[in-house]
């Protein structure tokens, strides 16, 4: 199959439309061709394309910064000489003067299919800036490795943030190109927009169910996104960034597991199966041990739960990562009623709100976990209408 970048590089007619126009590129380490050449170098080698600027999202164009809220500087590309502006530094929206350095921006970002992944918000901010300055936006589309399933509650009004660009559920099931179409409609943007579509993407086909396993190499789009298993689990495990539990940063399997020194993972798994076995379909939970080399619980032996989605028992349609992680929280709250579960700090520049609420676009998930009387049926009742509404709302914007 071909991603959007591959199509642009192989299609003379497409590239001809960029001739005579100043071109910028928004990219990160996973912005690569099928033979693993980076988009910057591949586009700079095209005689029709004049690259005059580039932009790096969170974690930087180089993808070197590990954690959240680690800002990247602006710099000049050491090979090609054009400026590289940081959209995760002093600002997260493009400055007006940056918008004067190009006529059309190519966006080539590998997403993970989750609302909280900040490349989604960066896409919106660039679209808004392009509308303001009369610039063109081309999205060079890439697969959503988590595929088409939808899960989670819709972000509530007033809870918009850098990890919540608009009223969508946690797992949106769209590509970046499709999300751009939705953003333009949702926010009534007047912008010249084009999606360079993929060829041959089959999101319902196994074993990849979104990612073309065996056809394309996986390149980390951010430092703690090392494989397809992480991408599949991320719409649930990302909530751990708002909890005191470790999400496995500082291990080789980040965001596929959770744990802490003061829990019993076997007991947690058993309680999860008692509470809502119907939420655990498609995956296998395994108790294990780990010792983070950095981040939460660094240097401490943790009892953990690993979520396995890379084995023959994986069922893509049945797997519900947001519910699995919610159930993990609920099990811990039931086993340890006074457990200090929620972190309190200005997560992604959202001050005065608990990180778990910012992540979920409202307090509903946390309130459900902390309410001793609330059961799985209550969360389902509050969530299913949002999921059904999104399934219908996104339908008109799907390209594949």
UniProtKB/TrEMBL annotation:
Domain of life: Bacteria
Every Peptidoglycan beta-N-acetylmuramidase NamZ N-terminal domain range: 23-228
Coiled coil: none
Domain Peptidoglycan beta-N-acetylmuramidase NamZ C-terminal: start-end pairs: 233-400
PANTHER family for this protein: HYPOTHETICAL 460 KDA PROTEIN IN FEUA-SIGW INTERGENIC REGION [PRECURSOR], PEPTIDOGLYCAN BETA-N-ACETYLMURAMIDASE NAMZ
Name of the protein this chain belongs to: DUF1343 domain-containing protein
Organism field: Brevundimonas intermedia
């Amino acid at each position: 199959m071909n991603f959007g970048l591959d199509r642009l590089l192989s299609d003379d007619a497409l590239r001809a439309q960029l001739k005579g126009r100043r071109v910028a590129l928004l990219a990160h380490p996973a912005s690569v061709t099928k033979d693993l050449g980076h988009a910057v170098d591949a586009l700079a080698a095209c005689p029709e394309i004049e690259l005059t600027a580039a932009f790096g999202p969170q974690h930087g164009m180089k993808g070197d910064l590990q954690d959240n809220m680690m800002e990247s500087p602006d710099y000049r590309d050491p090979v090609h000489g054009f400026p590289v502006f940081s959209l995760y530094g002093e600002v997260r929206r493009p400055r007006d003067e940056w918008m004067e350095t190009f006529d059309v921006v190519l966006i080539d970002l590998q997403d993970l299919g989750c609302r909280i992944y900040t490349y989604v918000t960066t896409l919106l901010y660039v679209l808004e800036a392009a509308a303001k300055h009369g610039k063109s936006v081309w999205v060079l589309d890439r697969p959503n490795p988590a595929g088409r399933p939808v899960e989670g509650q819709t972000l509530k009004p007033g809870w918009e943030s850098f990890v919540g660009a608009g009223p969508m559920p946690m797992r949106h099931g769209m590509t970046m190109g499709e999300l751009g179409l939705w953003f333009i409609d949702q926010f009534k943007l007047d912008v010249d927009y084009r999606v360079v579509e993929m060829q041959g993407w089959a999101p319902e086909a196994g074993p990849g169910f979104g990612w073309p396993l065996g056809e394309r190499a996986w390149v980390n789009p951010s430092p703690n996104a090392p494989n397809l298993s992480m991408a599949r689990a991320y719409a649930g495990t990302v909530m751990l960034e708002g909890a005191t539990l470790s999400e496995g940063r500082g291990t080789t399997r980040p965001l596929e597991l959770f744990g802490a020194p003061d829990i019993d993972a076997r007991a947690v798994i058993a309680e999860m199966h008692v509470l809502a076995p119907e939420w655990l379909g498609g995956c296998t939970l395994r108790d294990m041990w780990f010792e983070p080399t950095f981040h939460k619980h660094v240097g401490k032996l943790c009892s953990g739960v690993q979520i396995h989605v890379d084995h023959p028992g994986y069922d893509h349609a049945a797997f519900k990562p947001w519910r699995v992680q919610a159930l993990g929280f609920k099990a811990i709250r039931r086993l340890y009623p006074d457990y200090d579960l929620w972190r309190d700090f200005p997560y992604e520049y959202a001050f005065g709100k608990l990180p778990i609420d910012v992540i979920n676009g409202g307090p509903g998930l946390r309130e459900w976990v902390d309410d001793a009387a609330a059961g799985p049926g209550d969360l389902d009742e509050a969530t299913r209408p949002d999921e059904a509404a999104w399934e219908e709302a996104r339908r008109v914007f799907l390209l594949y």
